[in-house]
Specification:
This is UDP-N-acetylglucosamine 2-epimerase (non-hydrolyzing). By secondary structure, this protein is α/β, with parallel strands linked by helices. Helix content is about 45%, strand content about 15%. It is globular. The chain binds uridine-5'-diphosphate.
Length: about 375
């Protein structure tokens, strides 16, 4: 069967890479990889780390392009790939403009669609942010849904998807994490990791911060920065913040947090260095989806700087806590974890609901010859 895996952003690349590697080894699959490059540099780093090469690089990101411009360019550029390759299946991931537009292009051509990380929902109605509508639109036209958890399966079934069209797999991010951890354990080191080692001070508790969500642009990031500034004054704490390249993140963070003792603003890290940093962290403060899924496997408590989440399993399991963006709330939740070892122990030892690292094997089993 001919299969096209298509993705565009860093997190999608991380989560699709283990599947691409698995499919490459499957003689029943003729695999093509297509990247839209919604992220450019951060995506290329992931491809390099996992040793993947794109058969099609659509290179569609332009500065200041609107979501509609991006969406229409993805739709028409991917249509040409479909025309040329005539695949049996396309695999899309998650909730990006790449996912929804490539799925739509495949739907118009009657190509079957598989959706990895299917069934996540916030069900927030009039949100101006595209993720929820991207995942719902993609889910509507998907033929085969790979749900990471039973609650994502339940969402799909409530929406009328037949049970036989859903497979609960665990999240492929755990497969990717295992690959990265194995590599680190076998002595892998690069310049970024060497540099991190020189920044991390023995005896200090590392608080790692990441953020990139549109919903936190503006006031959200200003409040987050205020909280981080306050946290950096706690004795024995060291903040390490790989700052996302989006100017809406760069600007407030550089304006409000530059030059403060104990706060290390660094460039976004390539995946292996970020995994190294997560391992070295005491607490992780983030608005990221993927980090919420990965960090519990490393035994690291995650405080999520959002008001809502499409990943309720981790909150229920107790590995993750929603803290929003109120500076006082963020500060007090971090301080409580630092000062109360029982709280810390409870969060860091809770069970990770996002899987066992065998997700891509479960998907691959459906495609053996
Ligand atoms: N990540 C990375 N380098 C960084 C920050 C994050 O490689 O400097 C990884 C992280 O391990 C996770 C993914 O990027 O696998 C999450 O991406 P992001 O937070 O951008 O997106 P989301 O998961 O929220 O869609």
């Amino acid at each position: 069967q001919k299969v096209i895996l298509v993705f565009g952003t860093r997190p999608e690349a991380i989560k699709m890479a283990p599947l691409a590697l698995k499919f490459k080894d499957n003689p029943a699959i003729d695999l093509k990889i297509c990247i839209t490059a919604q992220h450019r540099h951060m995506l290329d780093q992931v491809m390099e780390f996992f040793g993947l090469q794109a058969d099609y690089d659509l290179d569609l990101m332009k500065a200041n392009q609107s979501l509609n411009q991006l969406a229409s360019r993805i739709l028409s550029a991917f249509d040409e790939v479909l025309e040329r390759e005539q695949p049996d299946w396309i695999f899309v991931h998650g909730d990006t403009t790449t996912s929804s537009m490539c799925a739509l292009a495949a739907f118009h051509r009657r190509v079957r669609i598989a959706h990895v990380e299917a069934g996540l929902r916030t069900y927030i109605k009039d949100s101006p942010f595209p993720e929820e509508i991207n995942r719902q639109m993609t889910g509507k036209i998907t033929d085969l849904h790979f749900a990471p958890t039973t609650s994502s399966r339940d969402n799909l079934q409530r929406e009328g998807v037949e049970e036989q069209d859903i497979l609960v797999t665990g999240n492929t991010v755990i497969d990717a994490l295992h690959l990265a951890v194995q590599k680190l354990q076998s002595g892998y080191e690069d310049d970024e990791i060497a540099q991190l080692k020189s920044v991390i001070t023995a005896g200090k508790k590392v608080i790692t911060v990441t953020g990139h969500r549109r919903e936190n642009f503006g006031g959200g990031f200003e409040r987050i920065c205020e909280a981080i500034k306050k946290l950096s004054a706690i004795e024995d704490v060291q903040v390490i913040f790989p700052v996302h390249l989006n100017p809406n993140v760069q600007q407030p963070v550089n304006d409000l947090l530059s030059g403060i003792a104990n706060i290390h603003l660094i460039s976004p890290l390539a995946y292996p260095a970020f995994v190294y940093l997560m391992q070295a962290s005491h607490i992780i403060l983030t608005d990221s989806g993927g980090v919420q899924e990965e960090a519990p496997s490393l035994g690291k408590p995650v405080l999520v700087m959002r008001e809502n989440t499409e990943r309720p399993e981790a909150v229920e399991a107790g590995t993750v806590k929603l803290v929003g963006t109120d500076p006082e709330k963020i500060y007090s939740e971090v301080a409580a974890l630092i000062q109360n070892p029982e709280n810390y122990q409870r969060m860091s030892s809770a069970y990770n609901p996002y899987g066992d690292g065998q997700a891509v094997e479960r998907i691959n089993q459906l495609f053996v010859g």
